[in-house]
């Protein structure tokens, strides 16, 4: 096992109707005024907006609204949020939504405490020193943002999708009520499943050594995600399936699954971020296109691990069969598995390569992921 | 899944030579004076004492020594530590050792901040409101105390072994260097394996519903503990085996494995605590005696889960075979599996029953664990 540091101070409140406690919990922490960050109309459609507002009002907590966060949250809207947070001198951010809303909320939390341009932190030119406390009510289980110190934002002018990471942006409290995900569409459930699987397989495959404990933990999450997604697609209101899926998605990216693994990177996310930035596709859809293509390119570099995956997850004996089975499963749940599925023509590949290569430079992965390599992977994604 | 709250703020520093950073890490937290809690001579034998002292001196951190913690830490020695902590106005506790040292350290941390009799907190008559910060260097992986809010102390006068639980006694930082466990004897490694398995199977079996995610997570830990223990007994200096075992023991009782399980109790620990209090046996040895006996008594109350355990862990088909296989494995690694193995004669059973029943009352489990039931379980442990 490699040396590691682990620290995760986020408090999780998990279960039915948990969101109704938000007002009381904020008050207990002496929060008087929050920036209430959310996306489009979905939290109003399911009555969540009203329940949150009522809980805040009951405890006399002031709130400034910052709705309209996009699925791939953009820098301009984030900056508007920072301005609101500063002008209104809020004590905390309350993010109600999925990973996009949480990521924008975290970024506003950093921006509210600095006079620097927030994008400098994404370019890794500045180190985050402080942030407002972030409170979360989760409505879509997928990104794991509810229990980690990451945030991803797209700069729509430069077409860059970049991330920040800091201990200061772990949410202080995240409320996870699986009932709030009953209305997540089959399509978005499929993307969420892909995203969660992606979070655990990046290090599992790209690391040079993965302890058996971590192999088993990762396979536990993959098996649970596949099992529960099939139940959810069949019966969207199955509470236990929604709950196990939700907690699996949180565990997948709260730090635990990568501990002790030697090496390891996030190459699939790197390429998927480019697809997201260029074509504004859902993150999970980008990943289901990239993953089988990357796997075909990478499999001989870590053959034993691909054979293990094939055996443990699909009970088949070859690396190739394992990859094919995963691709078939992605297709079965309704996720795209090629550029063509997403309406992206082959001539676009060079543009995607340029964009992904820029991320590779920022992530210090450009040596391994040259433009030639990226082209080869993306060509695998073409059919 | 049942509703749950999860919060675990302990920072883990895991890896080779990590203990050498202790002085710097304390200084970073503005700690100027610590109570240095440890057990017998073992930390001196392996040179750890000298390394800790040198690291503290280098950073100018004062320390008051409180050595001599017993394997089942006792109230009188703990009270001496509380007096030292108060008289010397220490800022923090530095516990260097295994679970016993950490548990005594945590208890001193609470005692140093109150004028009440510390035993009142164990009798659950008082709620813990504050504690000094606790820093840990772990030398024996087993109890999980390095990353949780529990502590167990034995009142040697009343022969009571009781526990406290509070968010205030989570260690602030725990240093886990697997190399420090190279000298753990085969016997203590066996007890540690039993203890870790015990921590994950209590809820797994005694709960009324265990989500598949949790079943798999628990089985991941059991499989890793069994696999690595066999390697360690064969090759005590196998770093990766020691490391995977160490982290498995931490994960087993840091809160994660019990989340979402319906119901569930710690009956094996309850009875094992009595054996520990009455005969001063190592905790793991008490558990390996109690577990197969309790399983035989309980198996028909949750038959499907016992069959699952048999299949997943030993690839056998009946609950009975699963229990027998576990008992055989305990024996194989050198742990006692009957009262007789520990030199306790049958006529002692009534005395153990009286003691265990008292714990059952404190733990609010006396309705299920009547004296008749406890007698039946202990009779199972007689052969």
Unreliable segments of 5+ consecutive residues of chain A: none
Mean pLDDT of chain A: 96
What characteristic shape of chain A results from the CA principal axes? globular
Task: Give the ordered list of helices and strands of chain A.
Answer: EEHEHHEHEHHEEEEHEHHEHHHHHH
Say which CATH homologous superfamily of the largest domain in chain A is assigned.
Dehydroquinate synthase-like - alpha domain
Q: State the helicity of chain A in percent bands.
A: 40-55%
Note the total helix count of chain A: 15
CATH class of the largest domain in chain A: Mainly Alpha
Label the structural class of chain A.
Answer: alpha/beta
According to CATH, the fold-level topology of the largest domain in chain A is Dehydroquinate synthase-like, alpha domain
Main sheet attributes: strand count, strand direction, barrel closure of chain A? 6 strands, parallel
CATH architecture of the largest domain in chain A: Up-down Bundle
**How many domain units of chain A?**
2
Number of strand elements of chain A: 11
β-sheet strand percentage of chain A = 5-15%
Radius of gyration of chain A: 20 Å
Distance between the termini of chain A: 38 Å
| Side-by-side strand order of the widest sheet of chain A | 2-9-6-5-3-4
Counting copies of identical and different chains, the oligomeric state is homodimer
């Amino acid at each position: 096992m490699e040396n590691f540091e682990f620290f995760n101070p986020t408090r999780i409140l998990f279960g039915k109707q948990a969101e109704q406690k938000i007002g009381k919990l904020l008050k207990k922490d002496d929060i008087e005024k929050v920036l209430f960050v959310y996306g489009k109309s979905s939290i109003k459609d399911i009555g969540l907006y009203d329940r949150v507002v009522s809980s805040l009002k009951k405890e006399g907590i002031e709130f400034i609204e910052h709705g309209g966060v996009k699925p791939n949250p953009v820098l301009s809207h984030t900056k508007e949020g920072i301005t609101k947070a500063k002008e209104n001198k809020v004590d905390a951010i309350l993010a109600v939504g999925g990973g996009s809303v949480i990521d924008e909320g975290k970024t506003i939390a950093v921006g509210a405490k600095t006079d620097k341009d927030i994008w400098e932190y994404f370019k890794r030119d500045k180190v985050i020193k402080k942030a407002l406390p972030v409170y979360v009510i989760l409505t879509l289980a997928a990104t794991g943002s509810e229990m980690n110190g990451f945030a991803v934002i797209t700069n729509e002018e430069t077409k860059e999708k970049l991330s920040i990471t800091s201990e200061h942006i772990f949410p202080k409290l995240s409320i996870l009520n699986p009932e709030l995900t009953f209305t997540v569409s089959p399509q978005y459930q499929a993307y969420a499943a892909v995203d969660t699987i992606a979070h655990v397989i990046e290090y599992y495959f790209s690391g040079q050594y993965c302890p058996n404990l971590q192999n088993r933990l990762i396979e536990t999450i993959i098996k649970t995600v596949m099992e529960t997604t099939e139940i959810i697609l069949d019966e969207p209101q199955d509470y236990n399936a929604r709950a196990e899926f939700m907690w699996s998605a949180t565990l997948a990216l709260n730090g635990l699954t990568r501990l002790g693994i030697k090496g390891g990177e996030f190459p699939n996310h790197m390429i998927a971020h480019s697809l997201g930035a260029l074509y504004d596709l859902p993150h999970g859809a980008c990943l289901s296109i990239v993953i089988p293509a990357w796997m075909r390119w990478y499999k001989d570099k870590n053959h034993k691990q691909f054979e293990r995956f094939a055996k443990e997850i699909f009970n088949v004996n070859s690396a190739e069969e394992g990859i094919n089975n995963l691709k078939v499963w992605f297709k079965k749940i309704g996720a795209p598995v090629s550029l063509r599925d997403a309406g992206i023509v082959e001539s676009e590949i060079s543009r995607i390569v340029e964009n992904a290569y820029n991320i590779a430079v920022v992530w210090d992965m450009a040596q391994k992921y040259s433009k030639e390599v990226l082209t080869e992977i993306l060509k695998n994604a073409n059919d």
